[in-house]
Amino acid sequence: MNMEKNKVLIDLGALSRNLEQVRRLVGRRTRIMGVVKSDAYGHGLVPVSKSLEAQGIDRLGVAWLSEALRLRQEGIGVPITLLGGIGTPEEAAQAVRLGLTPVLYDLSAAQMLASECAEQGRKVEVQIKVDTGMGRLGVSPTNLGSFLHDLGRLEGLVVKGITSHLSCADRPEDPYTAGQIRCFEDVMGSHAPRQAPFAENSLANSAGVMGFPEAHMEVVRPGIMLYGGLPAPGFRAPVPLEPVMHFRGVVLQVRDLPAGACVSYGRTYRAAGPRKIAVLSAGYGDGLPRRMSNRGYVLINGRRAPIIGTICMNLTVCDITEAGPAMPGDEAVFLGRSGNEIITPDQLARWAETISYEILCSIGLRHHRTYVS
Ligand SMILES: *Cc1c(COP(=O)(O)O)cnc(C)c1O
Fold first, then answer.
1. Which end of the chain is more exposed for a tag (fewer CB within 10 A), N or C?
2. Which fold is adopted by the domain 12-227?
3. What is the torsion angle, in degrees rounded to the nearest 10, for the CA atoms of residue 158, residue 160, residue 166 and residue 170?
4. Domain 245-372 carries which CATH code?
5. What pLDDT does 1 receive?
């Protein structure tokens, strides 16, 4: 039995409706790689991947081999891309054995894979990562010709396509993305073999899926939008997305505060007049960003209540003077829906001056998760 005061609820129905929205945006011919790295952005690697597999996802994307191993152990059979690639002969051996698709960005990894292919008598599918402007992993476009030439001498590697990552697509007005798309197309135009063009080129993350149809290519790689988050808090989503994660605690105590009384460490809040306050069961140790002190809101019985004073390790105080009556044991919603009100990951991210990705990981990874569909 789960005795925790604070509960994370994962709504798999919302996950599948968000996936439907991705399908609507990209059409039936574009394949979808669901990105499930970092424990599916805090939502739970295995349950989320099983749910996506049941909804007919074409591929899953993880950062590391350990995540892919876990998925295969759980019987998940869809193609899996290792977005972070492989770096050791042991990793190469597992990748070949399990039929994973590593992203390649240097020749030494390619050589490890080739010798494993020879050893095991198998082939391995790979994606070539090209840096079109993200400035992170990848082969630079100018070196791609010689990289592919060297790859061509290795046995066992089947190049499925070119892949690259967008750095600024969360700002649709930024012309940088158009430059990255052009660079990607140039690279494909000059390097894809004419007799058998690469079949699975991939460029778009969630921001690319929603903001740049010309970046969709053959495979899209949405992550955050599957979980109902936005690429940046101010981003305008062209489709409705539903938060998948709900984070709830309880009211521990309700108190009347006289005018002039202070709340929490450092006395950063001082009551201007008499207030009614509620003390809640979660703090930064439970994943609530301390930056939300005196800035954020929580939902008590479907009404918004401002957070007052500094957030503590496991306690947060809110002002319920205008939120109506509350009692110890009442539910406090930090993320997700309560009645007709909702706190989205991006609202929370805005109060905390971060992005929804970080919010979801920091809350989700700390708690036992309950799944509903
Ligand atoms: C994390 C990641 C994605 C998904 O990005 P979102 O912004 O969450 O959609 C796509 N591609 C790569 C290479 C990634 O690392």
1. N
2. TIM Barrel (3.20.20)
3. -140
4. 2.40.37.10
5. 67
Considering the candidates 7, 160, 265, 269, report the single residue annotated as catalytic: 265
Q: Which part of the chain has CATH 2.40.37.10?
A: 245-372
pLDDT digits (tens, 9 = 90+) for 30-65: 999 999 999 999 999 999 999 999 999 999 999 999
Cα separation, 177 vs 171, in Å, equals 9
169 phi and psi angles, rounded to 5 deg: -70, -10
Q: What pLDDT, on the 0 to 100 scale, is given for residue 195?
A: 66
- Looking up tokens 């809110």 gives 318
- 94-112 burial, b at 16+ Cβ within 10 Å, e below that, comes to bbbeeebbbbbbeeebbbb
41 labelled catalytic:
no
Strands (E), 164-272: 219-220, 245-257, 262-263, 269-270
pLDDT tens column, 218-263 = 999 999 999 999 999 999 999 999 999 999 999 999 999 999 999 9
CB 165 less than 6 A from any atom of ligand 1: yes
* CA gap 183, 335 in Å, rounded: 39
Q: Would residue 357 show up in a list of annotated catalytic residues for this protein?
A: no
- Residue 256's beta-bridge partner residues? 276
